[in-house]
Hints:
Three copies of one chain form a homotrimer.
Chain A: H1 2-26, E1 33-42, E2 54-58, E3 77-85, E4 96-104, E5 112-121, E6 126-135, E7 142-151, E8 157-168, E9 172-183
Amino acid sequence: MKARSYTAIFFILLIISISSSYAKMRKEYKPCKELVLFFHDIIYNGHNKANATSAIVAAPEGANRTILAGEFHFGNVAVFDDPITLDNNLHSPPVGRAQGMYLYDTKNTYTAWLGFSFSLNSTDHQGSINFVGADPLMNKTRDISIVGGTGDFFMHRGVATVMTDAYEGEVYFRLRVDMKFYECW
Amino acid sequence: MKARSYTAIFFILLIISISSSYAKMRKEYKPCKELVLFFHDIIYNGHNKANATSAIVAAPEGANRTILAGEFHFGNVAVFDDPITLDNNLHSPPVGRAQGMYLYDTKNTYTAWLGFSFSLNSTDHQGSINFVGADPLMNKTRDISIVGGTGDFFMHRGVATVMTDAYEGEVYFRLRVDMKFYECW
Amino acid sequence: MKARSYTAIFFILLIISISSSYAKMRKEYKPCKELVLFFHDIIYNGHNKANATSAIVAAPEGANRTILAGEFHFGNVAVFDDPITLDNNLHSPPVGRAQGMYLYDTKNTYTAWLGFSFSLNSTDHQGSINFVGADPLMNKTRDISIVGGTGDFFMHRGVATVMTDAYEGEVYFRLRVDMKFYECW
């Protein structure tokens, strides 16, 4: 009688153990952390040296580095140091800097390739988040990879959904970045 | 008697449970997904504007952006938007675009550093795959890292083995990319 | 009596099994592998072609590619092929090459963004390690992400702490890289 009740407990525990194990093997798609931030890019155009946060540093033959190239800017590489804010206001207090590069890489539409980092330094978040991915600008939302992080984001991985929140001529754009981390440590 | 047979079942289940747990801890080297694709790069050389899929956008002092630099192209950066095909035929229907950059980074042999993405858009695959790594071009095969993905390749990681499948002067090359994913979600 | 002792064994094993499972879910912060290496960068300045291991390949409008740009080199992109050594001596036998690029990305202090790989080829280590991250140069130590690896570093991930071990004018610098791998396969 006693042995039977132990056996029952055993099977219950075993089922819990196996099913939890299975859940891990499948890995779950619910983020373990989420964060939404905005960053603001003001590209140098020859007249805004004081305000500009990015600069064209490379261009294809025939193009210069003051004006974005023809053919959908194909071949332009820009380096940036953009303020990050909690909301969509350029003048909100920055919580960090978005730093790295983007390059325009299609001749017949706007697409970019991004390699950059968020360096966060606020009361809420300290550390860096590293991004790599393709950015087909004409899509409402684009997914890029969060390939690593440090500090509060130690070893994190995830997917960031990027949206163009504002676009003013070829001088200012604002990106909204919805980060979903699926590996949090 | 009954207790004994339950006990036997228990040990069998326990062994299965422990060994499967152990297999996970070791992590297995069998890919959870495999994919072979080709991409085709036609570099702009001053005469092929209509066909070119890539352009030299940066070069060291003394070199221009029409012709690849001397010293094994050291310091050249190229931006590309190359068609991806299922086989080695440039004229096969593309299943996506390989977009990003490569840079030549040795003075006494051909090596490159790659940062690019596959943007796949076919009936079989929707999504992006992000690559980073060193490419010692003179080796028959080179391994680079798959650092993330989106869509069908959500959160994937793996290793891609790159082979130069064709090389015609300094105008066209074709790369075969054998992707092996070891984290699939 | 016999059933009872089996039951006792069962609970002991179950506790071991559950606690080991829990340890995995939390993931541990102890590295599974550690490695310290140095690399040496000699930037081309117009007079040291034979020795230089890196070159400025991109610069903002108004700057050239022989001398690092003003404003904390904002917008300069350098491509490098630097020897890696086991100690801090430039003339020690190299165990591999650090290859890729760095770009300066702030106007009012020194910060860089790094995308590069270690290609190791020694008796102790064969394979590549891929790095991405922000490098705020004025900090004593900076953490960047190890986003993948091949060969002996197959699928590895981790964090690398970078320190400027020497800095001589704007011609030579030496970085110490303390790699801690937390996913080792």
